[in-house]
Batch of 4 targets.
Target 1
Amino acid sequence: MNRRAFLRTGAASTAILWSLPGQCAEDRSAPPSDSELLSQARESIQRYRKTDITVQVQSSDGAPVPNAKVKLEQVNHEFLFGCNLFPFNRCANSDQEEAFRSRFAALFNYATLGFYWASYEFERGKPGYDYTDQVLEWTDKQGIACKGHPLVWDHPASSPRWLPDDLAEIAPLVHERVKNVVSRYKNRIHFWDVVNEATHLPDGVNKTKMGAWGAAIGPVPYTGEPLRIARAANPDAALLVNDYRTDPAYLRLLSSLRKERGFLMNAVGIQSHMHQGVWPLHKVYSVCETYARLGLPLHFTETTILSGGRENKEWGPTTAEGEAAQAEHTANFYTMLFSHPSVAAVTWWDLSDYQAWQRAPAGLVRQDMSPKPAYERLLDLIRRQWWTKAEAATDEKGLCSFRGCHGSYQVSAEALNKRISKQDLRVGRAHPNQITLRL
């Protein structure tokens, strides 16, 4: 079953039953309402995405400083809010390019960069590193983490025409590509969609040389060996397997990649294109719960919610009514994902209607880069509601406390005749979440 057919088949995408805590999979009663799920999600955000932060202010000799003015300012999220960055340097004009970059940097801290083999290395031996280097120069300055997508895929976009007809000769070329790309960007790209959409290989969905090779060796070797090679090329990289399917076939593949020392990948990639309709919130929760059982972080790698419909079998333009619905669905979807402790990232696909996949009205902004309501709703959630900026005064022991979202902070204290001290602080489940400032 190919991607479009799968997305059209609601039964397939909801094959795994939703389950709330305390309910078994056989419980086929009506799922909880959206309001119930969203209420639970907001409580979970407070529990899982925030933590207590303690700041102590001391004088240079270690004595506590009471009544010091302490400021806590978040500078980045631990959670990865992302989008693909494919239009970078490819907009129609400089004004559109500047607007695209501005909108992107204002909202996202994570970018997906294209490594589609057929175009990335259109001529054998001449990969498009120069363009990637340009993109990384900009993302580095913006403090945006990057992911490469994809290294191995059977689609025509990632099956170069110059691949040999002899399938036995394809494996070393694939493995060499994975090794070269990951090692080249070892210090600049930390995340990789190593293998994309391997579950459908036995079905022969894509009539490509990559597809024929993958079908011949099977999904597990096709996925496992590139993961091993990528791990050797960069032991510190976060490696993903990515798929549009959320049915048992994907679970079986992922489970097969568990070895004695754990999984070959670091995270599970889950696509959520909603061209054929928005996922019910109980399905969002069900998918999260199901894949969380693997014990790996979940990355929602490709999310689309449209703001327009079809016209004569083609996608029509964005509409005011569609934009209002898109904004509501998008805010609810992100709230559900951000509330689940296993979800570590969500990537929108594409930022703008300009050059969007399938030419659909899938952007958070319009073709002229003006923001849709969905962009404004996400900006409010990510940079305001799920963002911490606070002030407090220390007590007689020189202590004050805050509750803040997980992420990076700058902490400053002012006292003792306007003397100021500043430090950086990482806040999260894996950090001590306390800091001492000396004036």
Target 2
Amino acid sequence: MPTMLTPDALAVDAVWSPEQVAYFQSEIERRKGSVGWYHEVTVTDRAGHSVRTPGIHACLPILAVLERFGFPRDFTGKTVLDIGCNAGFYSSVAKVRGARSVLGIDYFQHSIEQARLLRDILQLDIDFRQGDGEALGEGLGPFDVVINTGVMYHLQNPMQFLSNMARLTTELMFLESEMLVDSRHSEYAWFIEHEYNRDLSNWWIYGPECLGRMVRAAGFSRAEFKGFAWTPARGEKTPEGLDRQGRGVMLCWK
């Protein structure tokens, strides 16, 4: 495998020229567009040269946390769909860990362009396409494993999305999402009428039991809530003054 995952970076089995390093960094800058990068990824070569995407999602430390909650450490021979792939970090991890094929889909074309650049820097064979998880047509998949991180709270039609994922999944969906932290609200959902955490694209935040029931109703046989990978400080508020919620993980078996 020409690319390896280390504690600090994704490492390619190559030595870049100064011109390549300058080109990669200039393309990273160019592709930040008007919204910037979300995934922060460092890539190094054999000679110790490095390039970095300037995101706010510290991918490697967060991956280490997600692994404690069931993110697969081995994808050997699996077909993988990374839905809501953003700049493709988790797609890259799946491929480095042995996936036979990986397809990353994101609603935003700028994210797909970023993912394709990261793929090329890493020298990985990954297919990235623009698409809408709530409106995926026939002829796609099936996939052994679906990676579903940071998507559920952005969906206006979550049951249609989950039904699509159930149709496409043959083994496991790894689901990470904003979730309600108060156990008294575990069976409920909170509709976000306006802005939440400076983001107008948020629609729903689910309690773990509510989301598990939705997953099963959509066509998965079992949903296991693994816990909160992150929780806010007691009484923490969003910039809008709303109660900040946590990030929960659920494993969903077909």
Target 3
Amino acid sequence: MLREDWVRLTKGQRKAIRHRLRRAGSAAERRRLNAVALYDAGQTMEAIAATLGCSVGSISLDLQRWRAERFAGLAPKARGGSEPKVSDEQFAALEAVLEAPPSEVGYCAGTWTLPLMVRFLVEQVGAPQLHIGNVSRRLAARGWRRLRPRLGIVRQDPQREEKLAAIEEAKRGRWQRTQTR
């Protein structure tokens, strides 16, 4: 972009850039906003690229995006990715059965495990085969969390204090001379 083609920023735009810099959600958005502000301040694209640690081409693209779309052009773009293999309806069916033990659905288990949930989705709901990490992540996003059993004290140990003292003594350790050959 030629310097002659650049239209100076208004006072309101400069203020909006400062405000958006403080609220920027990503490093890329922050870099784009800084590029526009520095170019408006009179720096060359080469100097801006050196300051921001990127290429001159990136700065040129950022300035072109600013001229074409203003702040919308500097905002981060939506990320790609494939569609989920399991639909929301299929996950809703899984959530409905999670309220009851797996034995009520026909499985010989006492609690729901991630592999058992995957098996349910594949066998009974008709979902394609998927990784247990995907099921775990999607359940967490829907507000589910894994409950882990905790061991409790069944009875009070009368020798508890002596045992804890012995453990602390063993933790300190002792030095011992070894025979060298």
Target 4
Amino acid sequence: MKKDIHPKYYSEAKIICACGNIISTGSTKPEIKVEVCSACHPFYTGKKRLVDTAGQLDRFKKRFEKSSKMKAEIEKKKAKDKAKKKPKTKLIIKKKVSKKKTKKTTEK
């Protein structure tokens, strides 16, 4: 291995779960915090329960609100830019010139 290019390795890093479970492992970070681990995840425990769906829904709603606000701001800017610009349309009126054929009558 080359020297001075690799991050520091912690052989006794701790993974701390929201349920209180602490797991010891090796990592480049000394402490990692997680919301779900194998001790509390429904798949591993066999218990049917919702895992922080309210928190996920709240986070999604916040992101959705931000994106809708940004879209509204962009639309306002576009409307202002349109109002500032002069319309480039010109009315071109073409007159139809009709050539009427006149009958010449000759008297005898």
